[in-house]
Structures are given as structure tokens and as C-alpha cells.
Amino acid sequence: MEQQTRKTFLMEQKIRVIVAKPGLDGHDRGAKVVARALRDAGMEVIYTGLRQTPEMIAEAALQEDVDVVGLSILSGAHMALIPRVIELLRANGQENVLVYAGGIIPEEDIPALKAAGVREVYGPGSSTEVMVADIREAVAKLEKEQVG
Amino acid sequence: MDMFDKVLAGERLALARLLTLVENDTPKGRLALDYLFPHTGKAHLIGITGSPGTGKSSLVNRLALSLRASGVEKVAVIAVDPSSPFTGGALLGDRVRMRDLCGDPGIFIRSMASRGALGGLARMTASVSQVLDAAGFDVILIETVGAGQSEVDIARLAHTVIVVEAPGLGDDIQAIKAGILEIADILAVNKCDLPGAEQTARQLRAMLEMAHPTRPGNLPEDQSAPIWLPPVILSCTQGCQGIDEIIQAANAHREFLKTSGEWARREQERLKNGLEAMISAALLERWRGGLEPGEFERILDGLTERKISPFEAVDKLLDG
Questions:
Q1: Which residues sit opposite B140 in a β-bridge?
Q2: Higher pLDDT, A116 or B217
Q3: pLDDT at position B176 over 80
Q4: How does pLDDT run across A35-82, given as a tens digit for each residue?
Q5: Any residues with CB less than 8 A from the CB of B145 and at least 6 apart, and which?
Q6: Among A22, A90, B63, B201, which is least packed by CB within 10 angstroms?
């Protein structure tokens, strides 16, 4: 009960996430499942829809001042699109935004993506609970660093 | 340069960050509102409201494009979607319909979750619009959550309210009910390519006819005062029909507000409402701060067990 009343009265900081589909594939079921899971975990999820260019995603991430960008790709163009999104985020001054990737991404590409700044890659069958826990932990750590 | 001055100078990253601070009602956000307040009061706030699925976001997309094409320098969009009452999370999907607005440096879109507020907006939407106003946006389009019948907060915030209807959503009885239709300065019958659009428009016109200010009983006290008759406009965002008409009507409405003195009156009303809301919030905060730990829960238990009535509970909580 105590917690319930708290929730109604206090403005709390919300984790804001963009879930985006860069590139040309038209399958967004996975992205929607993730968006829904993050929503159910109490986050504010901005869903941008299909066929986004890296420029569109970076612009939306800036305007919405998100903590997290989630990118879902099934087309195979991840090595071109994901590093480009990260580059644009950094160029816009959003150095601290956490970038996660999901979709069909071969094992051997993961190290290169992580080197480019992707925090974690979630393939098919990943647990949404793990994603939620990862994001919460990473955002909390980031906030601590910024305050400290 | 200080963050607040960066916002005044139109820097987008500083603006986005400040909007978060204001939305979360942080101490720095409040400082910013103090600092920026003298720079507000210039923007034309246009509200867009209506039932879920009537095409509000798509209409906002078209309106913003047309406004920019007609030479308006800076257009902001605030799109509000509901928060879950259970988890507090939200899925903000209005941007999906606004993809045509990407890449235009004269446009800034911000999504907001309603965070428990019930009037169709979030508690901090007014403050967020103030920041955008101070940042030099000429027109601010405010899209409410999909509104049923009584989510009318937008009428207290916006200068001009566009109520979006679509064909097939109700008969002429719906049209004469109190609530959302009463707050319309402009009525848009969207998706007018669908069958029944003309009939919906006719019902809305009949509704307006009944409330016509020149009918006996509806006459205003000062009969020389100019009157505004809400136009009913058929629109379609696929074929871009009716968009320029809506913008012309919104501009005409702004002129009407300014020449009739209604602009100043609404501005005062808005500030008064905002002040009252802030006083309520501040008093509530102060009251909660002075509460003995566990007292609220104890009285709530008494209430749940039907030992005391809600009025008695309030008396106990306020006066001890």
C-alpha cells in the first residue's frame, strides 16, 4: 500500500527508451514484443515504426532525450546501420545514450558491434526479463556516474 | 553558456534535456521555468483532441508540414499518450505517424506520457509548452491522449482547440452531449474519404446550430462583441484534403481572439488555473511532509474496514 501511494504522489524519473527499426526489413514483431516488455517494466517507450534511416533515429533520440536506444534489424545490414546510428548520436552530443541491438545478428559480428559502442546484442529467444534487468542496471550506473 | 541561455538561443540538445528536467518536476526544472517565464506568451498553442483512432497524429503531421510550407519558422509538437495505471510504463507511438517531419530543423517533436493525469494531458504539459514557447517556437501543436468525452484539460491550455471526429463513431445524440464537442474552436471530420463523412459533418453542424450564439437564450450579454462560430471542416490526411482550410481557420481564430480581447482573457484564465493547480500540489506536498509516519495508512485501514467514512477520514487527516 505504502508503495502504491508513493507512486501516485511522487514524480519519479522514468527510463526513456526508443525502439527503432533501421533499414528496410518489414518485420517488427520482435521490436513490438520488446517495446511491450519494457513498457510493462514501467519504462516510457517511444516506438518509431518501420524503415527508419539512422538520421531519423538519431534525431528522434535527441528530441526525446532518451536514456536508451534499442535497434532491431533482421535484414543483415546491421554492420552498416548500427555503427552509423551510434556515430550520429555521439555527434549530436548524446555520448551517454546506451545502445542495444536485437534481431538476426551472426555471432561473429557481435565483437565488432560491441567495439563500435553497442552495449549488448539480443538474438532470438532472449529473455525480456534479462533485457529489463540489464537496462535498469546500466541506467542506474550511468546516473550515479553523472551525479558523482 | 548556461543551459537556460542555450535553450533561449534554440540549441536542440539543451532544449531536449531541459524538457526532461521540467517533465520530471526537478528543482532545476523549476528554476528554468522561473528564468524562462518572461520569454513566454508569444506562441500560438493549438490543441488537437478527439477519440482514439480518429487520426489526430496523422493530422498533426500534415498540419506541421503545411505550417512550415506556409512560412512559419518554428513548429513544435507535444504528443501525449497514456501511461499504464498498473506499471506506470507507456508506449508512445505518435511519432510513427509523423515520419514526414524528420530532418526539418524547424520542427521539434516531443512525446509525453500522461503519468497518471486524467484530463487528456500530463500534469507537466503546460510547463513543457512554456519551455518550447520561450525557445522561440511560433506554433505549438499539442496532441492529447485519445480522448473520450470529458478529457477537456486542453481547453484550459490551448488558445485554439481542434476536435477531430471521424465518420461512423456515433449518432446525433452523441453530438449534443456535453463535453469534448463543446470545447471545439474548429471541428475536423477526418477520414472524409470514408462513407458517412457528410452525415457526420451535418450532425455536427446541427449541434452547433442549436448552440448558436444568435439564438434566443444563447445571446451573449454584450451583443456588440464579436462571436466565433466553429467551422466544420472535412479533412483527409491521405489526400491532404482540408489541411490548409484548418490552418486558415486556426489563424482566423487567433485573429478573433486577439481582436475580441479573448486572447488576454484566456491567457489570464490559463495562468489562474496553473496557479491554482500549483497551489494544490504545493499544499498537498506540505501536508504530506507534516504527516506522522503510518498515520495515513492507519486511517486508510479504518476506512477500508468501514469504521470511519471518507469525510471523517479527511477531517482526521487534515485536523488531526
A1: B45, B76
A2: A116
A3: no
A4: 999 999 999 999 998 999 999 999 999 999 999 999 999 999 999 999
A5: B80, B81, B82, B114, B120, B121, B151
A6: A90
> Which residues contact residue A75 at a Cβ distance below 8 angstroms, ignoring those fewer than 6 apart?
A23, A24, A25
Whole-angstrom distance, CA of residue A64 vs CA of residue A44: 11
pLDDT value at position A5?
37
Reference A65, options B39, B15, B263; nearest CA is B15
Which chain B positions have a beta carbon within 8 Å of A35's beta carbon? 91
- Residue B208 pLDDT more than 60? yes
Cα separation, A68 vs A61, whole angstroms: 8
| pTM of the complete model | 0.89
Cell 528522434, located at residue: A60
Chain B residues in contact with A16 by the CB 8 A cut-off are 20
Residue of chain A with shortest Cα separation from B93: A47
Q: What ipTM was assigned to the predicted interfaces of this complex? A: 0.89
Q: Which residue of A has its CA nearest to B103?
A: A56
Give the whole-angstrom CA distance, residue B50 versus residue B162: 8
Nearest-angstrom CA–CA distance, A95 and A119: 13
B79 near B112, Cβ under 8 Å? yes
Count CB neighbours of B40 within 10 A: 15
